[in-house]
Amino acid sequence: MTLCVRLFLALLFLLAGWGVYNRWSALGVFAQNPSLEGVLESIKRDPTGPEYHFLAGLLYRDQIDYLDTAKGRQHLERALELNPYSWRYWLEMGRTIELEEPSEAEAAYRQALELNPNAASYHWRVANFYIRREEFRESIPHLVNAATL
After folding, report:
1. Residue 117 phi, psi dihedral angles, 5° rounding
2. 69-94 burial, b if ≥16 CB within 10 A, otherwise e?
3. Considering the entire predicted model, what is its pTM?
C-alpha cells in the first residue's frame, strides 16, 4: 500500500471517529441535562442529529417557559431535512403549522400517514384536523381507520 493510500485511510478513520465522538458527546450532554439548554448544547455537538432538533422544536412549541413557535418550526424543519422518513417529525410539523398554514399542515399529515399508515393515533389526529376545518367527508375514512386499527 502506498503512503498516499495509507494517509487517506487514516484521515478517513479519523473523520469517522470524530463523528462518532460528537454523537456520543451530544448524547452524554442530553442524558445529563434533558432540558432545552441540554438539547441546544447537544445540537452544537452533533448538528446533524435530527432527534435533538425534533426535541428542541417540541420544547419551543409546547413548553410555556420556552414558547417560540417560529423557533420550534425552524427546528422541526431542520429535523425533517436531516431525516425526511420520520413519521413523527411530519406529524408534529403538521400540528405546529396547522393554524397558520392549513394546506401545508394537511400535506405534512398525509406524509406522516404515508410513512406509517397503521398508526391509529395518526388517523385520529388527521380526522380531527378535518373536523376542525369542517371537512367532514374527508374525516370519515380516517375515523374509520382509527377505529379499526
Report:
1. -70, -10
2. eeebbebbbbbbebbeebbbbbbbbb
3. 0.80
CB neighbour burial string for 50-60, b if at least 16 within 10 angstroms, e if fewer: bbbbbbbbbbb
Residue that the C-alpha cell 400535506 belongs to: 107
Rounded to 10°, the helix 87-97/120-132 angle is 20
Instruction: Estimate to the nearest angstrom the gap between the alpha carbon of 111 and the chain centroid.
Output: 13
Angle between helix axes 102-115 and 87-97 (nearest 10 degrees) is 160
- 39-87: per-residue pLDDT in tens? 988 899 889 999 999 999 999 999 999 999 999 999 999 999 999 999 9
Residue 26 pLDDT class (50, 70, 90 cuts) = low
Closest CA to 129 of 105, 104, 93: 105
